[in-house]
Amino acid sequence: VSVGAYDYRQKLNKFHTMAARDQDLISLINDIRPKLTIFSKCNKMHERVVKEAAKVSHTCLWYMDALNNIDQELISKIKNCNTFISGVPGSLSVGSKYNNNSFFVEQCPDDIYNYKIVDSPKRYDAMFIGNIFGEIHKERAFFLKNSKIHHFRNTYGHAHNELVNQAKIN
Questions:
Q1: How many of the other CB atoms lie within 10 Å of CB of 166?
Q2: How far is 152 from 29, CA to CA, in rounded Å?
Q3: pTM given for the model
Q4: CB of 45 within 8 A of CB of 39?
């Protein structure tokens, strides 16, 4: 069994447009013809990538963000993938509305990315890691502007876990 990865955020920097990046991924999927293609949210990726991948591969959309991030773009992907999986409470009812093959998988800490760092100093009373821009997130920008919550964005992997461990409230 061979597993490949496609960093769609990094590839966007290389191709400069979503359309070019998306076409590159479609071409790769058509060339490789994998048995399974897993999309991890893939915001700012057109639904046609999921549609095209589903022609040659079983497609699975894994969604891990808050319910208020479910927008038309994500719904289109849910409709067009073979399987929708989420670990967000309440998301199963949303997924099931658009895809009968929807499942809830409990998210839990792991020993690679999401684990407690016992000796981590608590540098922040409260923090938020994520996007505050766009129409769907306008309440976040207002709230963060009017509070003492530290805001971080573009933080992934181990750096994300380190920040979470430095906050009393995340």
A1: 16
A2: 33
A3: 0.66
A4: yes
